[in-house]
User: Fold this.
Amino acid sequence: MTGERLFPDRIETDRLAFERFDERVDPFEFYEFVARDDWRGAATEHMPWFRFERLDEVVAFVDAAERKWADGESARYLLRRRSDDAIVGTTAYTPEWEARRAGSGIVLAREYWGNEYGLERASAFVELTFETYDLEAYYTTCAAGNEPSRRMIEKYVERYGGRHEGLLRQHSPRPDGEVTDQHRFTITEREYRAATADRETLGFAVEW
Assistant:
């Protein structure tokens, strides 16, 4: 089974549209977005991999996302605000099939912080993890010192009954060679089932 059949082509939550990162993404539009000061500054301070300096880097990023999708390794999406179609960021969902877990990450332009877009996006991936993919755990990490991301993660992890596992020291290398400490959070299937026993899930639109 390839990624063509594994991942949703499009997801729509109340305020966001997740568009598959493939040849339909306009590299010029995305390059204009990532050239913004609030992207190259605050948004990617802890995620320097997403600081694209040239158009060819954007094209290579899209090509890599397509390959990983086709191989079933990860699903990357362009995030748009449904009210006006504005690009707000990018997100990826990464299952680890043999380990029976999945994780996700997000980068939002600074302008869109504080609107709980990250929480809305994560809720969709958490619910897909357990309701659609039948995996046993969801996890995510954020760099020590990245307080906006940590606050966002804490909200949805608490909502789904998960917990903060601890600080992984000297865990993630950056392009400049610095190795960062990372906070790790997890939600197990048992925790998820208990937290959602009294409410509906998968309340968003999915196109395959």
About this structure: Helices lie at 3-6, 27-34, 37-43, 55-70, 117-131, 147-159, 189-195. The radius of gyration is 16 Å. The first strand starts at residue 10 and ends at 12. The chain has one domain: 3-207.
